[in-house]
Amino acid sequence: MRQVVLTLNAGSSSVKFALFDADGDPTLELVGRVEGIGSDAWLRVKNAQGETVVRRDLDEGAITSPTDALATIMTVLSELAPDTEVRAVGHRIVHGGVDYDGPVLLDAPTIAKLEALTPFAPLHQPHNLAGVVAAHEAFPDAPQIGCFDTAFHRHQPWVNDTFALPRRLYDEGVRRFGFHGLSYEYIVSQMKRDAPYHHDGGVIVAHLGNGASMCAIRGGLSVASTMGFSALDGLPMGTRCGQLDPGVVLYMMDQLQMGPREIEHMLYKESGLKGLSGLSNDMRELLASNDRAAKHALDYFVFRIRREIGAMAAVLGGLDAIVFTGGIGENADIIRERVCDDMDWLGLEMDEDRNRLNAPIVSSDRSRVRIFVTPTNEELMIARHASGWL
Length: 390
Ligand code: ADP
Prior knowledge:
8-stranded mixed β-sheet, alpha/beta, Nucleotidyltransferase, domain 5
């Protein structure tokens, strides 16, 4: 039997998974997802080359929980990867709270502690933990390892960890947790290997996907991030608002008579690029559109990123590199170009040809600050953490 590591990311309507060979540094074998839990569920699996190897509609109403989804995933894995033994399961868990600054074995007391964090991440934490319970039932002998989106940021300086609210709220855990930590951790590990000089310096990573955030990193450690208490803060995203004056929320409550769930829906699902454009949350659609509102949405997106670059360069006390990652960061050359336009005052100069090709380095040879395009790989980061328990 070959030893493999499974990674799971269980959400409200989907379970994403990846299977890694665990001999040495984990190598991807299969990656897939069950989508549509509770409605018309389907399963898709791709191989390491990105080719779809299974696409299956699942019986209507058959998949109503992460446990059902995992049973389906196990069946398909036994077909596609026979003679393998799952030796550890790595879970993506959105919130590790104040205490967890790295991966952790998910035993009963730890799970109880993580359950208590549900009020901090009500849309994600319960589903993440339901995935842990399902995986424990499916693989009772394999260690379940929790990998947190918050862990990478836990040692930020206090000034970036807090809000200027009465101190007791900080003590209760109302802090700036930052998210996308597994992505940043992966980028840092790649830089350490491929660009050690820049790794040791001041780096801004822009993770631009459906969710978007930026992180200021010095010597491989998170110093500041744009996401705060929740995954709403900072940059505008596909459907999330980004930075918002809390007075707007008070106005929604008092003057518009909106309730908490209605406000939540607006801030998470109806805002950002979708809200501004009235068209789509999808960057490709917005880039292809001639619509004025779509252009405005892109203007705002670029403006906020540029503003954060200035702020983060100041926080870092100088800049050595910028890394673009995530679906937009890796692919949207026009967005990268607009973000870096006229930034020579900061030592940034882009090479247009390299940028058009999404090359790994898109700065010119003259640029004092190096600009990288680095595909992120959160699943690999989780698999590496989980394989530490083999
Ligand atoms: P998630 O946060 O869901 O993981 P991704 O990192 O996959 O999201 O990013 C999705 C975003 O990337 C979408 O807005 C999509 O339009 C954008 N994107 C993907 N490919 C391209 C491309 N070739 N050009 C421009 N944008 C792209």
